[in-house]
Write a structure and sequence with these properties.
The protein contains seven helices and eleven strands. The protein has 249 residues and is α+β, with helices and mostly antiparallel strands. It has one domain: Phosphatase 2c, domain 1. Strands 2, 3, 4, 5, 6 and 9 form a six-stranded antiparallel beta sheet that branches. The protein starts with a strand and ends in a 6-residue tail after the last strand.
Length: 249
């Protein structure tokens, strides 16, 4: 498995409130994490930084022998996310300028070719194979609720004025219930984790076209960010791209 990590401030923002990391545990487990912060002043980057740093600490200190089943992994991730949520929420209550801050979270725990994904907010995970592309996660957004209730179409959702209004985020409420997804990774394929600064600006067809270019995985990551910036770059843009291709340039 090869990977690359990119985070860019974009063309219009003064602060990058996204945070990303890819960690490898001494016992072969891996963890990809992405957080897209939100809040007044600079509080969004406080929330996303807290989420990433806390997740790092929990992961690097875990006894991986306890993560021997999918249920054990899910229980561990649930407990960690709940603890981080409480910490960010309490920090927002007592820290000037941090009231109401929160962040999205994608946490992908990788064990061999098996992934457990914990998800909050509207950051996304896509899975690309040579035949297919699938959006693994479902946005916790107002617009997605309208789509699921049949009130608007997916095409209408793409240009809805409240597209960026999310209904669940880490740290804005005292408790949280993340969504979990399980995924098996096969060769050849790509796993793309991104903030909405990417997914709002380029289509899955454009993503797939970049992934098929004869470039290194690092340059594919940079190309994704570049295209989002060329398409407006109104938001911070973050990407973690994992390749399951032995033939990667």
């Amino acid at each position: 498995m090869k990977y690359t990590v990119e985070s860019d401030i974009g063309r219009k923002r003064m602060v990058n409130e996204d945070r990303v990391a890819f960690l490898e545990h001494p016992d072969s487990f891996k963890l990809a994490i992405l957080a897209d912060g939100m809040g007044g002043h600079n509080a969004g980057d406080v929330a996303s930084e807290m989420a990433i740093e806390e997740m790092k600490t929990h992961f690097l200190n875990v006894n991986v022998t306890q993560l021997n089943t999918i249920e054990a992994k899910k229980q561990w991730m649930l407990e960690v996310i709940k603890a981080i949520n409480e910490k960010i929420y309490n920090h927002s209550l007592i820290t000037e300028g941090c009231q109401g801050m929160g962040t999205t979270l994608i946490a992908v725990l990788i064990d061999g070719n098996q992934c457990l994904i914990g998800h909050i907010g509207d950051s996304r995970v896509y899975y690309f194979t040579s035949e297919n592309v699938s959006l693994v996660t479902r946005d916790h957004s107002y617009v997605n609720l309208l789509v699921e209730n049949g009130e608007i179409s997916e095409e209408e959702a793409e240009n809805h004025p409240q597209k960026n209004f999310i209904v669940k985020s880490l740290g804005t409420e005292s408790t949280i219930e993340p969504d979990f997804y399980e995924l098996s990774l096969f060769q050849p394929s790509y796993l793309l984790i991104c903030s909405d600064g990417l997914s709002n600006k380029i289509s899955t067809d454009e993503m797939a076209a970049i992934l098929t270019l004869p470039l290194s995985i690092e340059n594919k990551g940079k190309k994704l960010v570049q295209l989002a910036n060329d398409s407006g770059g109104e938001d911070n843009i973050s990407v973690i791209l994992l390749s399951m291709n032995d033939e990667e340039v």
